[in-house]
Specification:
The chain is an alpha+beta fold and 93 residues long. It folds into 2 domains: 29 residues, no CATH class; 63 residues, no CATH class. The chain contains 4 helices and 2 strands, in the order ααββαα. The longest helix is centred in the C-terminal third of the chain and has 14 residues. The mean pLDDT is 93.
């Protein structure tokens, strides 16, 4: 986990097997498939937003929700909201 954060902050090298993929992701291509983004209202790591900061990254159907009572580990803390988001994406197809 520590290495993951170091790599994410460009303080450690990544796995060379994924170098080409990382290069493509750094270009931040548009997400064209249906998507739902979630912010936990009680996230102590990344404050929740209304999602407008993410909007430019999506060209396909997209919705954003703030989940009350959820923190940074939303799937574990609010599995029902996480499951509902998956079903919502499926319905967007």
């Amino acid at each position: 986990m520590i290495h993951s954060y170091r790599h994410r902050l460009s303080a450690a090298p990544g796995d060379p097997r994924y170098a080409e993929l990382e290069k493509r992701l750094l270009e931040q291509p548009k997400i064209t498939v249906p998507a739902v983004t979630l912010d936990g209202q009680a996230d102590g790591v990344i404050p929740p937003t209304d999602g407008t900061g993410y909007a430019a990254h999506f060209s396909g159907p997209w919705k954003h929700h703030v989940v009350p009572g959820a923190g940074h580990n939303l799937p574990q803390e609010r599995p029902e909201a996480f499951t509902a988001a998956i079903l919502e994406v499926d319905a967007m197809r």
